[in-house]
Amino acid sequence: MNTHSLARSLVCAWAAALMLPVAAGAAAKPATGAASKPLSGAEVSRRLADALVCKGDAAEAVYGLVDRGSDFNAGYAAHGFGEGTSYRAVAVLRDALVVAGAKANAVVSEMENSNPDFRAFTYAQFDGDYRQAVKLLKLQEAKPFNDASIGRYVSQQPKATTCPQTIGLTPIDDKHFLLGCGWCNGG
Description:
Strands 1-2-3-4-8-7-6-5 form an 8-stranded antiparallel β-sheet. A hairpin with a 6-residue loop joins strand 1 (76-81) and strand 2. The protein is an alpha+beta fold. Helix 2 (41-52) runs antiparallel to helix 3. Helix content is 25%, strand content 29%.
C-alpha cells in the first residue's frame, strides 16, 4: 500500500468512525472507471470548490487528483508527500478558485494541522476579504472558540450527537484567510 493510499484509508476510517451510518437502503456507488476519463479544468475547479464547502468527499477531491497525476491540459498539478498521518496532498491550479471575490490557487488535504486556529482537513488559503466569504457562506462565529474548533467561523450545525462535516474559515489578516472542510467542530 503506498503512502497516499494509507493516508486516504486513515482519513476514511476516521471519517467513518465519526459520521452517521448511511441511511438504510442506500447502495454503494459502483466504480465507473471515471479515473481514466480526462477531467476538464472546469470539472477540477468544481470538485475542489465543492470540497472546500463540504460537498461530497472533501479529501478524495485532492487525493483523486494525486492518483490521476498532474494534468497540465486540465490546468492542475497534484502531488502527495509524507507518510501515515503526516501525509499531505496538494493540487495547484493554473486558474484560481474564486469564492466571494477571493482567490486561491492551491488546495491541500492533510490530517495533521499545519495552521494555528484552523483544523479543516481539506482547505485553501485565499487572498481577499474574509468578511465577504463569511457572509456568502452564512458562517457564524465559533462559540466558544477552543482548541478543537475547526475555524474562527463555521457553518451552522444542528445540535446533535453526530459529527457532521463542517465548513471552517479562519482569517489570517484582513486580506487573507483559510477556508475548508473538517469534522466535529468544537470536539
